[in-house]
Specification:
This protein has 111 residues and is mainly α. It contains three helices and two strands. This is UDP-glycosyltransferase 83A1.
């Protein structure tokens, strides 16, 4: 398991998801490619397949460009919760739920 830098220094606000995502998408492909090349050029085991977090589809694109088998991608509950949290304002605006978290019976049926 490997962690790659987002190249944001300590003066950057990491709570700014937009800035962090922009940096990751700009930096991650080249960083991952360099890491894979460094490992594959060494005397150690070679990278022959890649398992990537589903939100990091760029990793699978890098694997494809480098001729590495893309084994899988995965999601966990935290990613879905993260996506839901960003969608809550839209759900409120669309009338699907109110600001107290109650769902409209128009959209949700309880059996």
């Amino acid at each position: 398991m490997v962690s790659l830098t987002d190249r944001l220094d300590s003066s950057n606000d990491r709570s700014d998801i937009g800035k962090q995502a922009e940096s990751i998408f700009a930096v991650m492909p080249s960083e991952l490619m360099a890491l894979i090349e460094r490992i594959n050029c060494s005397e150690s085991d070679k990278i022959t397949c890649l398992i990537a977090y589903a939100c990091m589809g760029l990793a699978l694109e890098v694997a494809e460009k480098m001729g590495i088998k893309k084994l899988s991608s995965f999601l966990d509950g935290r990613a879905m919760l993260f996506a839901l949290l960003f969608r809550i304002p839209g759900l409120i605006d669309d009338g699907i739920m109110d600001s107290d978290g109650e769902y409209s019976s128009k959209y949700i049926k309880v059996l």
